[in-house]
């Protein structure tokens, strides 16, 4: 069985009122669990706890284990009690592996992430919130060779703008202009990543641009911007926000109407409100309105908690989040708040 490294790097920094609540075990929690390939930290935490980000508070360090933060497929986790408090500890695997004299190939250990990173790959790499004026002033695609209006990886296109020969640029397309639905404040412009390439020639403002990689077809008027060498975070630290957060899910990737587990959503709150990558937010669906049978008045019912999301990228006024749990279909304009 291929042994994969489980990167247990969660250090939850919870707000004081959240910390007082403490971790709560699920009613149907197992006494033991064997880690399998494909597990994530969130998956395992959710098997034991009602609130998975409390994982560090019940993790017990075994003195015989050099590094208790490394968990591999095949390792067994056991629930024990110390001074009356639940603790999870790693015990010896019950598997028996019989070896025989032969040549064996061992795969390189691969970290298992906290969350499924493939769901947010494009948002971790290129797609960004950008100033509208910066995008409008960037070089733009005129046409492809042979007067084509769409091009792909390996093709050459012509563009117009200021750039230098040999410069590596990314191709972007104007996507969504986000406006706060409550205040009408402009929150930011999303530029969707289309591909990458290199300026092979520049004659004044006319550029010859060689496409090296594309996610979809490059079209006329697509914009060229300097490629960002981002420091990609692949090990998140799930935690409750330090400040009180009240916001809305205002958009979802691909523009679908219903939102479910592992969908990427846009939240109308960002760094200025105190959000940080790894912050966990509860999703609430607005309660309906019923008519009081006694007084005949309309009564607004309270909102109900319906899911959890984790913020993975933040900007000044906006954030991207990944839905980790959804007990019922979620929708745009559902509210988010501290868990």
List the defining traits of the structure above:
mainly beta, Thrombin, subunit H, 339 residues, 8% helix, 3 domains
List the helices and strands and how they pair.
Elements: E1 5-7, H1 16-21, E2 32-34, H2 41-48, H3 55-58, E3 70-71, E4 76-82, E5 85-91, E6 111-112, H4 121-125, E7 128-130, H5 132-136, E8 140-144, E9 150-151, E10 156-160, E11 168-179, E12 186-203, E13 206-214, E14 218-219, E15 223-226, E16 246-252, E17 258-259, E18 264-267, E19 280-285, E20 289-291, E21 298-300, E22 304-314, E23 319-326, E24 330-331, E25 335-337
Parallel strand pairs: 1-6
Antiparallel strand pairs: 1-3, 2-4, 4-5, 7-12, 8-10, 9-14, 10-13, 11-12, 11-15, 12-13, 16-18, 16-25, 17-24, 18-23, 19-22, 19-25, 20-21, 22-23
Number of strands: 25
Tally of structural domains: 3
Biggest pleated sheet: 7 strands, antiparallel
Q: Unreliable segments (pLDDT under 50, ≥5 consecutive)?
A: 1-20, 64-68, 103-112
Q: What is the global morphology?
A: globular
Distance from N terminus to C terminus (CA atoms, Å) equals: 37 Å
Work out the helicity level: under 10%
Q: What does the radius of gyration come to?
A: 25 Å
- Average pLDDT level: 80
Strand content: 35-45%
Number of helical segments with 4 or more residues = 5
Structural summary, described in words:
This protein is mostly beta strands. It folds into three domains: 5-114, no CATH class; 127-226, Thrombin, subunit H, CATH 2.40.10; 246-337, FlgT, C-terminal domain (Thrombin, subunit H). It is 8% helix and 39% strand. The chain is built from five helices and 25 strands. The chain has helices at residues 16-21, 41-48, 55-58, 121-125, 132-136, and strands at 5-7, 32-34, 70-71, 76-82, 85-91, 111-112, 128-130, 140-144, 150-151, 156-160, 168-179, 186-203, 206-214, 218-219, 223-226, 246-252, 258-259, 264-267, 280-285, 289-291, 298-300, 304-314, 319-326, 330-331, 335-337. The strands form seven sheets. Strands 7, 8, 10, 11, 12, 13 and 15 form a seven-stranded antiparallel β-sheet that branches. Strand 12 (186-203) and strand 13 (206-214) form a beta hairpin. It is globular and about 75 Å long. Residues 1-20, 64-68 and 103-112 have low confidence and may be disordered.
């Amino acid at each position: 069985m291929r042994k994969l490294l489980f990167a247990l790097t969660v250090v939850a920094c919870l707000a004081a009122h959240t910390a007082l609540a403490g971790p709560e075990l699920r009613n149907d929690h197992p006494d033991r669990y064997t880690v399998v390939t494909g597990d994530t930290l969130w998956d395992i935490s959710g098997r034991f706890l009602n609130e998975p980000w409390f994982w560090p508070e019940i993790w017990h360090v075994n003195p015989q284990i050099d590094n208790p933060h490394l968990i591999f497929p095949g390792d067994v986790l056991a629930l024990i009690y110390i001074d009356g408090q639940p603790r999870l500890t790693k015990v010896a695997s019950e598997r028996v592996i019989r070896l025989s004299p032969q040549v064996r190939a061992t795969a390189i250990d691969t970290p298992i992430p906290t969350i499924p990173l493939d769901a947010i790959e494009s948002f971790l790499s290129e797609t960004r919130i950008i100033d509208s004026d910066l995008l409008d002033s960037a070089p733009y695609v005129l046409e492809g060779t042979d007067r084509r209006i769409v091009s792909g990886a390996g093709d050459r296109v012509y563009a117009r703008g200021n750039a230098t020969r040999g410069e590596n640029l990314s191709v972007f397309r104007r996507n969504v202009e986000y406006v706060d639905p409550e205040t009408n404040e402009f929150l930011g412009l999303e530029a969707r990543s289309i591909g990458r390439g290199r300026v092979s020639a520049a004659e004044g403002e006319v550029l010859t641009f060689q496409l090296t990689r594309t996610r979809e077809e490059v079209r006329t008027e697509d914009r060229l911007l300097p490629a960002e060498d981002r420091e990609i975070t692949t090990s998140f630290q799930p935690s409750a926000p330090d400040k009180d957060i009240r916001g809305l899910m205002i958009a979802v990737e691909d523009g679908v109407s219903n939102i479910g587990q592992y969908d990427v959503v846009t939240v109308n709150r960002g760094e200025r409100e105190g959000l940080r990558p790894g912050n966990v937010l509860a999703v609430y669906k607005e309660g309906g309105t019923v008519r009081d049978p006694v007084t005949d008045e309309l009564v607004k019912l309270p909102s109900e908690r319906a899911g959890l999301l984790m913020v993975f990228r933040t900007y000044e006024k906006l954030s991207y989040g990944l839905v980790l749990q959804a007990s019922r279909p979620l929708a745009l304009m559902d509210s988010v708040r501290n868990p």
